[in-house]
Amino acid sequence: MKGNRPNLAILGGTPAFDVPIPVGQLYFPSWDRYEQAFRDIFKREYYNNNGPLHERLEYQLCQFLGAKHVLLVSNATLGLMMVADALELTGKVLMPAFTFIASAQSVSWAGLNPLFCDIDRDTHQIDVNEILNRMDDEVSAVMGVNLWGGACQPKILEELATTLGVPLYFDSAHAFGCMVEEGKIGGFGQAEVFSFHATKILNATEGGCICTNDDDLALRLRSIRPSYGAAAPVPIVRVANARMSEAQAAVALMSLEDFPENRANNEKLYRLYERYLREVPGIRLVKPAQVVFSNYQYLICEIDSRQFGLSRDQLLEVLKAENVIARRYFYPGLHRCIPYADDARLGGAKFPHTDELCQVCVQLPIGARVSETSVEKICDILVRIHGHAQEIRDRLK
Ligand code: T4K
Question: How do beta strands 183-184 and 191-195 pair?
Fold first, then answer.
C-alpha cells in the first residue's frame, strides 16, 4: 500500500473512486454471450414454464450440488416459504436472530412465527446450545442459516434435529458452492435454499433454488411452485407461483459456467484484504467459518472502535465520501425489527452476541466488479482513516 494520497474526502480531499464501488457480487457475463443467449430465447419464442434453459439449469445444478432434486424458484424468500409449507409446519420455527430479514419473513408469510436464538460470537453462526435453550413445544422446525460463505455445522444440526424430533431446513442464500467436511452445502436437512439474487455468486439477476434429497418433499414442492394450468403432481393447499423464467435461467447458466473463475477472484481479493488489514488496528476480518471450501461471497469485518478510532457507523460515512459503498449487515438484529421487536413471544430473551455484531460488522466490496487495485485503494483508505481518526471524529461532530 502506498498510503500517499493527499487527503481523505471527508477531510476535504477528492473521493478515491470516481464512481461508487458497491458491495455484492454483481457478475455480468460478456455482452456477446448475453446477446446470443437472448437471441436463442427469441428464436424459440419461449419465455417461461419449464423451458429448455430452465430444465438445463436444474439438471446442471443437481450435478454441481450433488442433490437429488433441484427446483428453481423466483427468489430464495419464496423458496423458504415453500419449504415451510411443504413440510406442513405449525407454530414456530427456531432460527438465528443474526441473519437477513428475509429468513424470518419467509416464516411469517408461511403463517408461522419465528423464534429467535443467539449466535456464536466468533463464527457468527447459530449456537447449538442456544437452540437447546430456546426450544419449546410449539417449535415445529429448526432453520439453520449458513452465513457469509461459511456454515453452521449442518451435520451437528442434523443430529440435534433428530434428537429433538423436528425437521431441519437451511437458508443457504450465502453458501452456494461451499463445502463442509461432511459434504457440499445443499445436501443437508430436509431441504436447503439458495439465493441467485444479483448480489450473490450464482446470479440469475433474481432467483434461487431449493435442493432436497427427499422424493415426496420434492413432489410437494413442484406442486406448490406450479405452472398454472399444469397438473400438480400431488394435491396441495396453496400455490406459490414462484417460477423462474428462461431469461433468468440464461444468466444463471453463464454464471454457473463462470463460478470457478468468480470464486477464485473472490478468494484472491479476500487474501489481499487479509494481508493489508493485518496492518490496521481495530479491524478484524471474519474468516468464512466451519467450511473446507468457501465461495468468499462476503467480505465481513468487525470494527473495534476503541482500537480503530471510529465506530462502525462513522466508518461507513467516511467510506461513503470516498465512494466506497459498504454495508452494516445485519442491522438491527431480527429481534429488534418490526414486526418482531414488540413480540411478547421473545419472552424477555436476550441476544447479546447478535446485538454486539449488529453494532460492529461491516461488509466491504468484493466480487466480479472489484479489482485488486480497488482492494488496495480501499485498504489504503482504511489505514489513512485510522491514522486521522481524531481529526475525523472532530469533523463528524
Ligand atoms: N437469506 C439470507 C441470509 C439473505 O442474505 C437473503 C438475501 C435471503 C435469504 C433472501 O434471498 P432473495 O429472496 O433476495 O433471493 C441484498 C439482496 O437484495 C438480498 O438478496 C440479500 N440477501 C441481502 C443481504 O442483500 P440489499 O438491499 O442490500 O441489496 P441492494 O439491492 O441494495 O444492492 C447492494 C449494492 O449493489 C447497492 O450498492 C446497489 C448495488 N447494485 C445492486 C444491484 C441489484 C448494483 O450496482 N447493481 C445491481 O444490479 O439486499
Answer: unpaired
Contacts of 146 (CB under 8 A, 6+ apart): 125, 152, 154, 170, 171, 172, 174, 175, 178, 185
The amino acid at 392: I
Q: Which of 141, 212, 204, 145 is nearest to 173 (CA)?
A: 145
CA of 18 to the centre of ligand 1 (A): 23
Distances (CA, A) of 132 to 136, 154, 230, 337, 382: 9, 15, 43, 24, 40
0.90 surpassed by pTM:
yes
pLDDT band with cut points at 50, 70 and 90 for residue 145: very high
Q: Which amino acid is at 73?
A: V
C-alpha span between 115 and 142 (Å, rounded):
9
In this structure, what C-alpha cell is assigned to residue 299?
467480505
Sign of CA dihedral 45, 49, 53, 55: negative
Per residue in 243-298, pLDDT (tens digit) is 999 999 999 999 999 999 999 999 999 999 999 999 899 999 999 999 999 999 99
pLDDT digits (tens, 9 = 90+) for 162-192: 999 999 999 999 999 999 999 999 999 999 9
Ligand 1 pocket at CB < 6 A: 22-24, 26, 75-77, 99-100, 102-103, 145, 171, 173-174, 195, 197-199, 208, 325, 327, 329
C-alpha 364 – ligand 1 centre gap (Å): 14
Centroid of chain to Cα 256: 17
Any idea how long the chain is? 397
Atom of ligand 1 nearest to the CA of 208: 15
